[in-house]
Amino acid sequence: MTTPFVTPDQVLIIGLGNPGPAYAGNRHNIGAMVADVLAARFSGRFKSHKAGADVAEGRLAGARVVVAKPRSYMNLSGGPTAGLARFFKIPPTDVIVVHDELDLPPSVVRVKQGGGEGGHNGLKSISAALGTKDYLRVRCGIGRPPGRMDPADYVLRDFTAAERKELPVDLENAADAVESLIRVGLLDTQNRLH
């Protein structure tokens, strides 16, 4: 039997996005969409938490999990993330952040621990608030903007009709990657995905 990468206590999973219905279908919100899929897997219901996030608690892949969607805007995601990590006494190494990734083609999911933020303001905020980059990331590819479109505009646009057809499968694959990280750890998950 494989042991989870974490102390079997608990894992904090952060699904990044911007709050409110205006942003719900944006590419930038794919992390929050994956959080919804994960919570549904254990019939979790999101409740407001004083740290500034909506939180669902349950069990996934044999571990206790806290799935959270910060209610702050993306570039302020660090405050709620660090607040939840403190509240639930979860070290940064047991935090998994799910986010959109411009440097990967659509539908591609990759996992890593630490490293740079690639210009992603949500990750920059989390690294600063946690005081380390040594947390796990599930990177959900959204591709590069077409032509000369500004990446900031691109991530704040809704997925196209064609992309939305693939999106349910993409979200399930990203959720599977999160569960794999918990169940078998980083290296085995990377070997399977990469």
TrEMBL record:
Q: Which SUPFAM superfamilies match?
A: Peptidyl-tRNA hydrolase-like
The GO terms this record gives for MF are: peptidyl-tRNA hydrolase activity; tRNA binding
Gene Ontology CC: cytoplasm
> Where is this gene product found?
Cytoplasm
Q: Which InterPro entries match?
A: Pept_tRNA_hydro, Pept_tRNA_hydro_CS, Pept_tRNA_hydro_sf
Could you say which residues are annotated as the site Stabilizes the basic form of H active site to accept a proton? Answer: 100
Q: Name one GO biological process term.
A: rescue of stalled ribosome
Where's it mainly located? cytoplasm
What EC number(s) does the entry state? 3.1.1.29
The reaction(s) annotated as catalysed by this protein in its Swiss-Prot or TrEMBL entry are: an N-acyl-L-alpha-aminoacyl-tRNA + H2O = an N-acyl-L-amino acid + a tRNA + H(+)
Can you tell me which residues bind tRNA?
23, 73, 75, 121
Q: Where is the active site?
A: 28
Say which enzyme class the record assigns.
Answer: hydrolase
Residue(s) at site: Discriminates between blocked and unblocked aminoacyl-tRNA? 18
Q: Which UniProt keywords apply?
A: Cytoplasm, Hydrolase, RNA-binding, tRNA-binding
**Annotated family:** Belongs to the PTH family.
Q: What does this protein do?
A: Hydrolyzes ribosome-free peptidyl-tRNAs (with 1 or more amino acids incorporated), which drop off the ribosome during protein synthesis, or as a result of ribosome stalling. Catalyzes the release of premature peptidyl moieties from peptidyl-tRNA molecules trapped in stalled 50S ribosomal subunits, and thus maintains levels of free tRNAs and 50S ribosomes.
Q: Oligomeric state and partners? A: Monomer.
This one is known as Peptidyl-tRNA hydrolase
Organism of origin is Nakamurella panacisegetis
Name of the encoding gene: pth
